[in-house]
Specification:
306 residues; 14% strand; Aminoglycoside 3'-phosphotransferase, Chain: A, domain 2; 2 domains; three-stranded antiparallel beta sheet; alpha+beta; five-stranded antiparallel beta sheet; Phosphorylase Kinase, domain 1
Length: 306
Amino acid sequence: MNETPELLPRPDRKTVDVAVAGRLIAAQFPQWSDLEVRPVDAQGWDNCTFRLGEDMLVRLPTAEEYALAVEKEHSWLPVLAPALPLEIPVPLGRGVPDEDFPHEWSIYRWLGGEPADRAVVEDLTTFGVDVAEFLVSLQRIDPTGGPVPGLHNWFRGGPLATYDGWARASLRTLDGLIPTETAEEIWERALRTPWDGRPVWFHGDIASGNLLLKDGALAAVIDFGTCGAGDPACDLAIAWTMLTGKSRAAFRDRLEVDEATWRRGQGWALWKALVVCAGAVGDGEGLPADASFVLEEILAAHERPD
């Protein structure tokens, strides 16, 4: 729990193509070998993802560290799903490594919808309340025996201090490009609000790409690779990555979030935005629009508290 990013392993990430997915299906799930395998439009980072026919999804981890989530998802998603108000992925098959693919992997039922985006959400305040309702339901599920923060979810649900070194290195990179003194003040304030509550279930990556819309409304939540039982503050980052003004206030009110948890959630959003911006600057690029938006929202909230 006290490891810093400098001590965490850097995944040896390797992607695979449709041919690998098709071969694994044919060898291990021959009943589905006649179904078409094709890549999804938007690939994630932790897994290579493919459609299997019209009703299923194949996820192949890109590194050993990401494969740690497979057992967790197969054990816990069937437990979580019946207690939640929205659809979530439920595993249909668990693949094993072979001589050419070294990780366990999964088959899920395909959940339709489009990724959430402010431009397509019909009512952002209703959306914020719906996300909060989902998180309230998730947090009410008995966490006994649930996976505690660790490498399987990159320490989501654990202390923000795990990423202090990374955040401060990013601040140094961004000095002169953003108000780093204010950002550091916000970060340090978040660090001073440690969590000492009862563990609850959290998703770990409540982000636009993992929230699916149908007809402009929230319909499903996907990708539970970072889920676990611990501090739920990491699930509050969406308050700054997607929500603004009234929608952010409605989200907070429905969750009944105390000030300390709210500050830690802001810290999670700030850490990710700093890292993304610093990475882009280090690559000789400008500040990315999405991460810059998050920084602007956090800095504005600091100047004019919600």
